[in-house]
Amino acid sequence: MRDDLLNEVIGALPGWLVRAQQFNDLVAARLGVSSSDLQALFVLSTEGSLTPGELGRQIGLTTGAASRMVERLVVAELVTRSPDAADRRRVIVTARPEALDEVARHYGPLNEQLRQALGGFDDAGLRALRDFARAAEATTEGLLRAEAPDTPTRTS
Predict the structure, then answer these.
(1) 79: nearest Cα among 59, 90, 60, 95
(2) pLDDT digits over 100-143, tens only?
(3) Taking all residues of the chain, what is their mean pLDDT, rounded to a whole number?
(4) Mind listing the domains of the chain with CATH numbers?
(5) Which secondary-structure segment (H or E) carries 10?
(6) What is the distance, to the nearest Å, from the Cα of residue 133 to the centroid of all Cα atoms in its chain?
């Protein structure tokens, strides 16, 4: 019985992940950016300012691809690029607050509907879902690192 329930939960995830990726692609298209660009904005919103290389590593881009992505985001006025105060040879990329507000606006309806769907869970259930989401992210990240520990996965 427990194995059946575990299989049902795991079996439900691919459909959700596909729909989430489709939604992310829709948001990226509405913003006029690529899915990699949108991922970069997400990373900058959670991690803060990063060098182009650090940002590229976070989303699996080569150094050259990360530099081109940063240039696109600067031209689109979604990020700023400035010299690192500690090391003037380095560049720091920062998401513009208005860009993050625009991204958040696109996710607002989804977040509200998810909030409503989660409203039926008690606190213990919400903590379990939170813990599962964190564990799923860490597991997936671990597998990505194991498959290509030092190699960025994308060049665009």
Answers:
(1) 95
(2) 999 999 999 999 999 999 999 999 999 999 999 999 999 998 99
(3) 92
(4) 2-147 (1.10.10.10)
(5) helix 2-31
(6) 14
